[in-house]
Amino acid sequence: MSNTLVVIGVQNCFCIDKAKGLPAKIAAHIRESDYDHILFGKFCNDPDSNFHRILNFTGGADAPETDLHSDVAEFATPETTFEKASYSIFKCKQFEEYLTKHNIKEFDLCGTDYDACVLATAFEAFDLVYQFTILDTLCSVSFIRNDLIEAAEKIVDRNLRSCPSHEHRDRW
Predict the structure, then answer these.
(1) Helix, strand, or coil here: 68?
(2) Which among 33, 82, 126, 166 is least buried, having the fewest CB atoms inside 10 angstroms?
(3) In terms of Cα–Cα distance, which of 25, 37, 42 is closest to 1?
(4) Residue 21 pLDDT > 60, yes or no?
(5) What pLDDT, in 10s, does the model give residues 102-134?
(6) What's the pLDDT score for residue 169?
(7) What is the DSSP letter of 11?
(8) 160: closest CA among 116, 139, 129?
């Protein structure tokens, strides 16, 4: 286990349907663990964003939708909560500054939506050469779509957890 946990999108607007029980599971994990740093990525939708303009997603713009879920809010501070208007938390300059300041090079990752923000953060962490572990059992999707969780897990397994064997390199 890493000494840092990064929690993505565990906010009122995303902890619905399939993800309703996720905040309590994450809170229990935090209580059972010994993390030095617990960092939160908080999506705040901007009216000029592509989420509004292209996807017509207008949610996640104001409190209480953007508030961290009450089950995990007790673990957050202003210094450890990073607002983003993108899929990946790495688009938030303050997040990377925090990692650099505290010499964090590896972390555990969890949250919602696994198929979007968690996955985008994982890909960017990979590209930026961070070591990380996705805690699959602490990831979910906002809507009742088990196929999205399964699809995200398959994408992670194929692209972030395994190297192609020699005989399959021609597929890459």
Answers:
(1) strand
(2) 166
(3) 37
(4) yes
(5) 999 999 999 998 999 999 999 999 999 999 999
(6) 36
(7) B
(8) 129
